[in-house]
């Protein structure tokens, strides 16, 4: 454990941010998985799930959880998958 007051605060802040980032990343991964499952099963609702997943990815990218290029790559791959399935 750190002895300096500012270092102790950094540890607390880092833990809080880590928990928030984990929540955002988990939510995004769940949305991506729903799209993947729907696309492989060729469900008609995969388009609506894709829109929700893209919104989640954009939100994660705006918060800094994902790099903008990573977000673009994920969106592109999901869109290709859904378009191929339909």
CATH-assigned fold name? Methane Monooxygenase Hydroxylase, Chain G, domain 1
| Rg over alpha carbons | 17 Å
The helix/strand class is: mainly alpha
- The CATH superfamily is identified as Ribosomal protein S20
Report the β-strand fraction as a percent range. Answer: under 5%
Instruction: Please tell me the overall pLDDT.
Output: 96
The helix content is: over 70%
* Tally of DSSP helical segments: 3
**What is the count of β-strands?**
0
Give the CATH level 1 class.
Mainly Alpha
Briefly, what is this?
By secondary structure, this protein is mainly alpha-helical.
List keywords for this structure.
elongated; Methane Monooxygenase Hydroxylase, Chain G, domain 1; 86 residues; mainly alpha
Describe the model.
There is one protein chain. This protein has 86 residues and is mainly alpha-helical. The protein has a single domain (15-85), classed as Up-down Bundle (Methane Monooxygenase Hydroxylase, Chain G, domain 1), CATH 1.20.58.110. 83% of the residues lie in helices and 0% in strands. The chain has three helices and no strands. It has helices spanning 5-40, 46-62, 68-85. The radius of gyration is 17 Å and the shape is elongated. The termini are far apart. The relative contact order is 0.14.
